[in-house]
Design brief:
heterodimer, A: 278 residues, alpha+beta, 6-stranded mixed sheet, 4-stranded antiparallel sheet, 33% strand, globular, B: 318 residues, OB fold (Dihydrolipoamide Acetyltransferase, E2P), 4-stranded mixed sheet, 18 strands
């Protein structure tokens, strides 16, 4: 194993520090979910499903819907995830996503409100990690953004009756659907610290060589909405500053490429779902 | 900076142009209700219907119908392709695990240091064992191991170290007993390990190859392959048989060769081609028109494997 995997901007697999491995994306493969997406990043495989249910909004944000993340690390992904082994990682990915989307400039949840302070749409985002090949956070966040782009929520007709009662009706037209504007949904960019340099999209071998990483949530406009530090090692303040700059640049490119490809996929006529066996 | 996101839908369109749609069945699926077919491997007759007994795809030759399973044991000939992957159905790297034969060269990672032996991971069903009595002490001394040697085991090999060894014996439960009783075996450093399915490594007399591009490749029978820069020394070999690790930085040109070789090996493994010194060298030469990092893209990997296959076929025809 090479001691310093990225010396002179050349990594073990020939990539530069800022290069991502090729990814493959597909949306809409889970037909009974409101939205779904599958993202493969080399050997990392993530499946995300979005389900919409009606519930009560948060008391501090009565005019907005809710987003709830839950992550399941399948035992197929890694022997460490057997039984309850994957719970710690699952919890940290879920909380990282919650914090990334908590910012008001991230995703506007107001269109999801049905009756202010009484009812709203809750989007349950379920993430299943099928295979673990390094760089889970980035793959998960891109798949989540793709699933939210793909999500269609039924439009409801809200009418207030005389006695202050509110009637909520589901429209008869099955094609009357609400779509979320995921333009500003953030993507997570993981920067791994190796010998005071940061590398993006680490493989499992590279992750084993490093003691610390910085996970940043970046929107399409290059805005950083959340920063998490993972690992036992430490960062020098100047390294953190340059890492955040690098993350902002990379995040903007990642978001832009993802949105472009999602729009291309939408334009394909008679798209056949490839799924897992295709 | 490069971010490359593809769509699964576009891959579907490219691939359907090159092959027909495969009929995939699971155990219990009716293959055909027509009684006029002969029953082949993987099927049984249930009344009038022919039903599949394994999970795989249907092969029809005239009036014979058989179901070819996905996880077929590979027999190993130069240039053959595994049938399951020809249909593009299998993508996992870790398809088969390594059973092992006496005399095989393996690369392994030390998992545990136990009393008088090391437990080594060689991608087999059970961890392999490297007994203290099967190693040469540093300096190549041949003597009986004493109590002090037992206590100093960790100074020779620690958890996480990579070694090259040979299979000495197979225990009754199927686990392998390794030995490093030769100067060419020992601790490995300053290189890259690549894992491929073990049945893609051709069984040959020599597994240590010094390639003309300046790298040394050790093709472990267990599917673990070690690539490092060729060490030019008096003995001319990569192994010093010892436990000394050279921790100096490897210069950039050699690292470029190593990473290109790594990507070429993964490209060949991705197209299920046999791995031996000639095929790896041809793949390396075929990949010279691409940058090393472009070899990670699936279409480039397929092209390199294709060019290599054509060159090997041409040679075999001569």
């Amino acid at each position: 194993m090479l001691q310093n995997p990225s010396w002179e901007d050349h990594r073990t697999d020939g990539r530069r520090r800022r290069d991502y491995r090729p990814m493959e994306l597909e949306t809409g493969l889970v037909t009974h979910a409101a939205g779904s997406a599958r993202l493969r990043l080399a050997t990392t495989d993530v499946l995300v499903g979005v389900k919409a249910e009606v519930g009560e909004p948060l008391p501090e944000r009565p005019r907005a819907g809710r987003l709830q993340f839950s992550v399941d690390c399948s035992a197929n992904a890694s022997p460490e995830f057997e039984g309850r082994g994957g719970e710690a990682l699952a919890g940290s990915i879920a909380s990282c996503l919650t914090r990334a989307y908590a910012s008001p400039s991230a995703l506007d949840l107001r269109p999801l409100s049905i009756v202010p302070a009484r009812q709203c749409w809750i989007l349950y985002v379920d993430i299943l990690i099928l295979e673990c090949g390094g760089n889970l956070y980035d793959a998960v966040s891109c798949a989540v953004k793709a699933a939210l782009f793909n999500a269609r929520v039924p439009e409801l007709d809200v009418s207030s009756a005389d006695s202050g009662r509110v009637d909520v009706e589901l429209s008869d037209d099955p094609f009357k659907l609400l779509r979320l504007d995921v333009e500003n949904a953030p993507c997570l960019v993981t920067l791994l610290l190796v010998d005071s340099e940061c590398i993006v999209d680490p493989t499992q071998e590279e992750e084993a060589c490093s003691k610390a990483s910085l996970v940043t949530a970046v929107t399409a406009g290059g805005l950083v909405t959340a920063v998490t530090k993972a690992g036992r090692g430490s960062f020098h303040p100047t390294t953190v500053a340059s890492a955040l700059e690098m993350a902002a640049e990379l995040g903007a490119v990642l978001n832009r490429t993802l949105t472009e490809q999602l729009q291309v996929e939408e334009q394909i006529e008679d798209r056949q779902i490839r799924g897992f066996l295709g | 900076m490069e971010v490359d996101i593809r769509l699964a839908a576009e891959r579907l369109r490219q691939e359907e142009a090159t092959r027909g749609a495969a009929q995939l069945v699971t155990p219990g699926d009716t293959v055909t209700g027509d009684g006029g077919f002969m029953r082949g491997h993987g099927t049984y007759k249930d009344g009038e219907n022919l039903v599949a007994s394994v999970a795989g795809f249907v092969r029809r030759i005239n009036r014979l119908i058989s179901v070819q399973p996905l996880k077929a044991r590979y027999n190993g000939e130069i240039g053959d392709d595994c049938p399951a992957v020809q249909e593009g159905l299998v993508t996992s790297e870790r398809l088969c695990c390594f059973p092992g034969e006496i005399g095989d060269v393996v690369i392994g990672r030390v998992i545990e240091v136990q009393q008088k032996r090391w437990k080594v991971d060689t991608c087999s069903r059970l961890h392999s064992l490297l007994m203290l009595s099967s190693v040469n002490l540093p300096g190549g001394e041949q003597r009986r191991k004493t109590q002090e040697d037992e206590l100093a085991m960790r100074s020779y090999l620690e958890e996480g170290d990579l070694i090259s060894a040979e299979v000495q014996n197979i225990f009754s439960d199927g686990s392998l007993s390794l030995h490093t009783r030769s100067l060419k075996y020992g601790k490995l450093s300053q290189g890259v390990m690549v894992a491929v399915p073990s049945n893609l490594v051709l069984r040959r007399k020599n597994h240590f190859h010094d390639l003309p591009c300046g790298a040394t490749v050790i093709l472990g029978n267990n599917g673990y392959i070690w690539i490092c820069a060729t060490v030019v020394g008096e003995d001319g070999g990569a192994g010093t048989g010892g436990y000394v690790q050279n921790l100096e930085r490897v210069p950039l040109p050699e690292r470029e060769v190593i990473s290109r070789l790594r990507n070429c090996i993964l490209a060949l493994a991705g197209s299920w081609m046999m791995l031996y010194d000639t095929s790896i060298l041809y793949a390396f030469e075929a990949s010279s028109k691409f940058q090393a990092r472009d070899l990670l893209k699936p279409e480039v990997m397929a092209e390199v494997a294709d060019l290599t296959r054509k060159r090997l076929d041409l040679e075999a025809a001569e």
